[in-house]
Amino acid sequence: MENTVLKEELKANIVKFLNLISVNPSDIKDDEPLFGEGLGLDSIDAIELIVLLDRVYGIKITDPKEGRKIFIDINTMVDYIEKNRTK
Amino acid sequence: MTKVFVTGMGLITSLGDSVVENRNSLCSGKSGITSLELFKSKYADSLPFAEIKIATEKLKEILSVDSADLTRTSLLALHACKQAILDSGLDSSQVKSMRTAIVGANTVGGMCLTDELYKDSNSKEKGSPFLASYDAGSVTLFLQKHFGLKGIANTINTACSSSANVIMYGSRLIKNGLADRVIVGGVDSLAKFTINGFNSLHILSKEACRPFDKSRQGLNLGEGAGFLILEKESLVQNRNVYAEVSGYCNANDAFHPSSLSEQGDGPFNAMKGALDLAGISTKDIDYINAHGTATENNDQVESVALLRLFGTVPPFSSTKSNTGHTLGAAGAVEAIFSILSLYHSELYPHLRFTDPIPETKLIPVQEYEKRDMKHVMSNSFGFGGNCTSLVFSKV
Amino acid sequence: MLYIHKASCISPQNTFNNVDLSILMPSFENMLRAIEPGYEGIPPGQLRRMGKAVRLGVGAALPLLKDSPQLAGIILGTANGGMEDCIKFLNQIIDYDEGTLTPTNFVQSTTNAIASQIAFMSGNKGYNITHVHRGLSFENALQDAMMHAIEDPTKTYLLGGVDEISDYNFNIDFLLGCFKEKFTSNDALFNANTPGTIAGEGAAMFLVGGQKENSLACMHALSVLTSTDERELKESFAEFIYSNNINLEEVDVFISGENGDRRQDNFNTEIELAMPPEIGIVRYKHLTGEYPSASAFSLWLACHLAQGNTAPAHMVKKVGAKKTCRNILVYNCYQGLQHSFMHVTS
């Protein structure tokens, strides 16, 4: 169940990187949309998530549009991290 | 209320170190967007920049100033400001009069010295000579001291619309009787701070920028300074006048810190307000110098706002295709370009355009053209939703 | 004529919500940091991105925006804006060697972030500007508002001054010699007789316009000078009094920007000597510390006194002959170079 550990770690990192002061990591549901509804993140957050992937998991994304395809929800992000992480 | 006239102009950009050189470059469709030669950055090999190919030490030599605390930003400002004063024919007593104000603009001041600032801000021992040269105000304070200015002095920072606002503000000082003439201008030099800032937002283009093109990939950073002398009508008499500052408006888009709203209310309101103040209608505008940064968001939104206001959009271009985005200098530099168009009755070619944005289909001026004009508009929009439009009219 | 209709202030003292200047909150290591409120009015989604300067500015502005007439615009003065974010971003550039950097610090560091954030939060699409002329940032914002009151007296604007202490600008200004070498507590600021002052921060916001009805105070005249010469200062003050028809005999109180820096005493003395002996003198920099837009606090204080409030003993340098406080002169000097005079009446 490594997957669950990664999910929890990712949620904590999202809260930390985006400074989501009123959000508890466990409040973020695995299939809840990160943008628009749900957490209500915006274009700057999308770039902050790219920085998160780079600094924590060693994944480099250069095109923010590519990022938006990955940052749908926690599930899609975890899938992508598992396949592409270099650290 | 008095009219406000432009009686002097000074410029230094990647296109040249004088108004004449800049005009020649514009006429011949020259681009100042090249690779970095003087400025050290990790991105020197991967990104193009509109760098002025005169080293900071050389600028000091040309300007005969030699003070350890001088930054490249202050030197570029001095260069353009000196030219503008000379061009207007003001003598020293006029410059030093209590009735002569200065309003400067820049976005990062002396922070072009990113590494020095890093050291100074993280230490309590042994400061560099630049301690009082980092803030935006330092540039104007230097000019005040250099020219012995005694009147009202101000510095404005509204990000990329900063120096459009100084033209507006200077005109208001004159109209309100607080000054008879105002030295206004903007400057910024290349800085690791802005290079990395815009890069972190993923809006720097890897190739020379293509404003209003379907395939645009972002902006190129540039550096430069533009200064103008504004005077009240009664002082001008038989001296040369380039244009009247006939309209200006500052409006906020109130949408997002770093992008414009889909409908472009900020740009729309700024353009409309400037027309209203000038007392003219959309069909009176003969040319628009667009903000046109070549980011996906700006050009799309600016096009939408242009179509909303004008219906049929007059000839327009973005001279950022020549100079890159000079940030705090852009408003003043592009105001001068707009005035040159008006004064010399000519339109300059917008560079590297091939395909219009599918949704808006606007096509900029691509060939040099002689054309008589009465009114031109210059747009400047910045982060924080800060939008300003200016209208200049033939005198 | 510019009329002030509402005023709000976040400072190192109890100036927000329940104003109480009688208790002097202490400085720590030559810094007076603002007492930040809970910011209940700011949505968490926006608060999370704000640096201190933006929080202070937005926080001070919010009470004025509630139940207010439609604002025609936002006019702010700040020398440095979000300095903390600015240097955080700078540190990233160096620490990560120009690698993948987080954009939030960059976007928040632009000095216009405070005025634009207030515009987003209040949906204000009007005039929006940030004056950044170091120690005259607020004065220039004030001048801008005074012009607007003439251009269209029916309109109301939000006017303010904000600056923050960051570890970074403290270091830079310390290296410049602006602050005292030894720790000096703020209650002893005016007795230290040493060079330098102590650092401060704060935000003062005002609703202003050209209409007199229900106003707290009237900003009658403003003048500025950039000079290191006492004689020029004296002449400039005389010119300010003369050209604005100010009768010094009618002035009740002088608010002095004295900051405990021995090197600036000559300027303050020059102005004090130019005034009739019966004028009361009030000081405030031991409440706020020194910062480029501290004069915004002095205008807030002038409004506070003009409302009939009295200055507690620790603020009074000299007791005046008059009981009333309706006619106020304010002088400020920043780093011995940028000077300003204000005349406020009620």
What strand line-up does the widest sheet of chain C have? 3-2-4-5-1-6-11-10-7-8-9
Largest inter-chain interface?
A: B-C, 66 and 66 residues
From the 3D coordinates, which CATH architecture of the largest domain in chain C would you assign? Answer: 3-Layer(aba) Sandwich
Q: Could you estimate the helical fraction of the residues of chain C in percent?
A: 25-40%
CATH-defined fold name of the largest domain in chain B: Peroxisomal Thiolase, Chain A, domain 1
CATH top level assignment of the largest domain in chain C = Alpha Beta
- Under CATH at level 1, the class of the largest domain in chain B stands as Alpha Beta
Report on this model:
- The complex is a heterotrimer of chains A (87), B (395) and C (346).
- Chain A is mainly alpha-helical and 87 residues long.
- Chain A has a domain at 1-7 and 45-87.
- Helices cover 56% and strands 0% of the residues of chain A.
- Chain B has two domains: 4-236, Peroxisomal Thiolase, Chain A, domain 1, CATH 3.40.47.10; 245-393, Peroxisomal Thiolase, Chain A, domain 1 (3-Layer(aba) Sandwich).
- In chain B, β7, α11 (296-310) and β8 (316-317) form a beta-alpha-beta unit.
- Chain B has helices at residues 19-27, 56-63, 72-88, 92-95, 114-121, 137-147, 162-175, 192-200, 233-236, 265-278, 296-310, 320-323, 330-344, and strands spanning 4-13, 100-105, 153-156, 181-188, 224-232, 243-252, 285-289, 316-317, 346-347, 369-370, 375-382, 386-393.
- The longest helix of chain B is centred in the first third of the chain and has 17 residues, at 72-88.
- Chain B has 13 helices and twelve strands.
- Chain C contains eleven helices and eleven strands.
- The two termini of chain C are 12 Å apart.
- Classes of the chains: A mainly alpha (87), B alpha/beta (395), C alpha/beta (346).
- At the A-B interface, α2 of A face loops of B.
